[in-house]
Every structure is written in C-alpha cells, then in structure tokens.
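I would like you to sit down with the record closing this message with an eye to the fold:
=====
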Amino acid sequence: MERGMTADQVLVALWRRKALVGAIAAAVFAVGAAVVMTRPSMYEASSVVRVEPQRPGEEMVQRTVSELIEQRLLTVRQELMARPVLQKAIEEMNLYPEIVSEKGMEHAVAQMRKDLTIRVEGENAFELTYANRDPNVASQVANRLPALFAEETLKLRQAQARRATELFKGEMDALAQDVSKWERSIAEFKIRHGGELPEQIEMNMRGLERISHLMQTKSEELRVAEARRSDLARARNAADSEAGRLEAAENGLTRALVAARTSWTEDHPEVKRLNSELETMAGKRKDAEGRMVAERNERTRVGTLIENIQAEIQGLQKDAEMYQKRLDNTPKWAHELAVMNRDYEIARTKYQSVVSRKVEAEIAEELEAKSSKSLFNVISPAGVPVTPARPDRLAGMLIALLVALGLGVLTGVVLEMRDDSIRDGHELRERLTLPVLAVVPNMQGKTEKRVLMPSSGTRNGISSPTTLN
C-alpha cells in the first residue's frame, strides 16, 4: 500500500535504508563514471573565414554571375555539408578509413556531417568547427575544408561565367549570319533597283533637270539648223536656175562660135568676141557650179546635223522618260527598302549588343579568375587543440553523481512508500480509528526500562496507559 510522505519522513526513511541507498548510488555512479571515462576524447578545431565583397568590378563591367559572393553565406552550411566537398576531403585526407572500407562512402560522409559544425558570423563570415579523435587531423580538416569550399565555389562561378561567354558567342555567331544575310539581301535589292533608290532621288531629279535643259538647247539648235536648211533650199533653187541659164548661154555661145569659125578665121573680131564671151560665161558657169556644190555640201551637212540633233533629242527624251520612271518607282522601292533596312538595323543592333555583352562576359570571366584568390580570406586559421572538447568529464562525473544520488533516493522513497510497517504512534493514530493506549519503544541496546501501568480511569471502555520510569 502506497502512502504520502513528508520531507522528515523521507529523510528518516533514507537514513533507515542508507546502506541500500548508498549501494545503489555507488553502483550507478560507478557505471556512469565508467561510461564517462571510457568515451573517446574528441578534439575540436575551428577556423573563421571572411568572404570579401566583390568591389570594385561591377562599376567597370557587368558581371555574368548574378549571385554575389556574399549571398553564398545564406547557403554555406548546405554547400559545405554537400557530398562533393566532404567526399573530396575524405578521399584527400584519408578520413574514416574503417567506415569507408566497411560501410561505404555514404556512411563516411554522414559521419563527417555529424562531426562538422557551420555557424555564420555576421554578414560576411562563417566559422567552421570539426571534431576528431586526433587533434592534428581536426586542425588539418578545419583548415582544408574552407579551401575546398572556396575551390568548389570558384569552379562553379567560373563555370557560370564560361557558360555565359559561350552562350553569347553562339548567339553572336547566329546574329552575325543574320546580319550578313540582310546585308546581301539589301545589296542585291540595290543592284536590282539601281537608280530607283531613295538615296538616288536627288540625283535623278538633277538628271531630269539636266536632260530638260539639254532638250531645250537641242531644240533651239534644231530650229536654227532647220532654218538654215530652208535657206539653203531656197538658195539651191536660185543657184540651180542660174547655173542652168549660164550653161544654156554657154552652149549658145559655143554654137555661135562654131558657126563663126566656119565663116571667119580666128583673128576675126567676131570670133575673138565670141571666144571672150564664152570664156567669161564658162567662168561664171564654173563659179555657179562651185557655189552649187558648196551649197549642196552645206545642205548635206545641215541635214546630217538636223538628223543628229533629232537623234540626240530622241535619246534625251528616252533619258528623261528613264529618269521620270525612276522617280515614279522610287516611292515603291523606298517602302520595301525601308522595311529591309529596319529589319537589318534591328539585327545589327542585336548583334552589336551581343558583341558588347560577349566582350563584357570575357572580361567578367577574367575578373572571376583574377579575383578568385581574394574572395575567401581565412582570418582565423584552426590551431591544434590541446584539450578535448568532449566529453566534459567533470560535468559527466557530476551528472553521474547526481543521477546515482537521484536513483538511490528514488529507490529508498519507493521502498518506503510500499512498506506497510508501522514504526511510531503517529502512523498508528493515522491508520487506526481507535485511540492508542500505549507505545512500546524499541528497547534493543538500551538499559532504560519502561513499565506500563494501567490507568485508574477509562474512556469509552478503554483504559489509558500510564508510563513509569
């Protein structure tokens, strides 16, 4: 039967069972002390790494790695705990050889995660703590892991920058082909419609004006030539009649001279007169024929000149029609050429932009490579620990002692609560409804004698005891 106990009763009960409580406490303490003392010593080494801000650089060139190096602190624990970094450290430093040989790399990585602690310090630093049984190994791992993390991070950033450069290069090649295609199309269009292009409209207008002026000039030359031909035609008629008259007169004089020679001698005055008149008439005839030939040649020349002028005028008319046709077709080709030029300018602008971005990506890639050594700065390298970080043997012994005492006390209290023995009058009065007449104390080892005498009076039929010493 269980019952409640006061503090005094607990202390009395523990004192009564002090041997049992002490034995239990000693046994539990011995077990706890053995556990504490047999646990292997774990040494912890810590290093503090500061992430240097990426300044300057963004003011000079647009970076292709959008994530700032400072932002990696938000995920530094996950990245350091990732398998690539831990596996590389295990393989490089030959950590957990027993686990690797017996259970495999996965269990070794899991064990290293348990032994590794990452804590972010402020906005741009983190502390890495590694625990191992060997203090030298703990120090080496704590100093090597930040370097491995930096190498993996820099490889990733350089790979991102390199991918951006390759992406811009591929895009640039595609746009270069597009630009070349548009340039060929525009060149072929200009060749097909040469003279009818918008940039040639002023030249065509000036050509048309020049043709108009030449046509006016040639028209005036034609008018003058035709007037000259008319004059020559009139002169020809007059010249032809004069030459004919002179020839007829010359023939008459020749017949008269022949008739006179048949009648007279050469010395005859009539014959001499006819000879003189014939010579004069022949000279006039020759002069008239010379003028006629000259006029004929002039008429031929003037006719040829008129024909040439007319041909030139026809050519000028064709040229004028050609220039007018060019001017008429210019608006139609101007629209098509404007559309082609617009698409070409868009492609060329894209190409120039991509070329500029590619150059910036190459510069950013070079900056990533050059600034890689200064991004992570170990401001507090890990030293070789002298004392083990755990277990805390003093605290462990104290805890074992407290647990042993607690179990001993608990055992004594539980046994006392389950003990139904009555040990004093107070318990008797609490557990019985009848009044207590007498209490006989434990007389073992005592010389005092107590005699119980019945009392003279009774109460409720039960006599009260009287104690005599």
In short: The two ends are 36 Å apart (CA to CA).
